[in-house]
Design a protein that fits this description.
With about 170 residues, this protein is an alpha+beta fold. The protein contains five helices and seven strands, in the order βαααβββαβαββ. It has one domain: Aminopeptidase. The chain has a seven-stranded mixed beta sheet, with helices on both faces. The radius of gyration is 15 Å and the shape is globular. Bound molecules: coenzyme A.
């Protein structure tokens, strides 16, 4: 796959959260974006979680939630979101990442480019490790993480733990 260079991260304020939710509703499965709250679809609980999450993450890695989220852009298009959350007690400065893209933006190298940008943010923040957890059946996510240098461990509970040492 040819590298996609026209990818950038943007901070998430309320207006950006609105745009992300619009993208999520039209171009992703709710379970790819938010925890399974309140039943299927974008119900009130899930929507409240979504805004609450991005509001808390606006405080950044050194804020009260120890978390930061970004919108992923490809050129002028909002394509998805990526996040980092500090993992206390990991023995070294570490954070967990997660990513989702709208379906129409997948398999074009955008995820790989966004992950590289997040790893650069992590290095800038002084982190030494980034981890992720995904389902054993999510081969796209595992490929993405491996391409970024992750070591994968199958945890026997149907999930895979990825560790990227920076
Ligand atoms: C996982 C996800 C972010 C990948 O982003 P993407 O932009 O599609 O990935 P890229 O195009 O950058 O591809 C990265 C690598 O993964 C591979 N890949 C992408 N989608 C794949 C799939 N569905 N199956 C197998 N491999 C896949 C690509 O071939 C590429 O491999 P390469 O570097 O050897 O060429 C995206 O598919 C997505 O948003 N999925 C839904 C949410 C999700 O699963 N998030 C992960 C939770 S940790």
């Amino acid at each position: 796959m040819s590298p996609t260079t026209d990818v950038a991260l943007a901070d998430v304020d309320e207006a950006m959260a609105d745009r992300l939710l619009q993208l999520a509703k039209g171009d992703a499965s709710p379970d790819e974006v938010a925890p399974p709250l309140g039943g299927p679809g974008w119900n009130l609980e899930r929507t409240a979680w979504f805004y609450g999450y991005h509001r808390a993450a606006a405080g950044g890695l050194d804020g009260p939630a120890a978390e930061k989220s970004w919108a992923v852009f490809t050129g002028p298009h909002i394509a998805g979101s990526v996040r980092l959350k500090r993992e206390p007690g990991a023995g070294l400065p570490s954070a967990e990442t997660g990513i989702w893209l709208g379906r129409s933006f997948r398999s074009q190298g955008i995820g790989g480019a966004a992950l590289e940008l997040v790893l650069a943010e992590a290095r800038r923040a002084g982190l030494q490790r980034v981890t992720a957890r995904t389902l054993a059946g999510n081969h796209g996510a595992q490929r993405l993480l491996t391409a970024a240098g992750a070591a994968l461990t199958h945890d026997g509970d149907g999930t895979v733990h990825a560790v990227i040492d920076l």
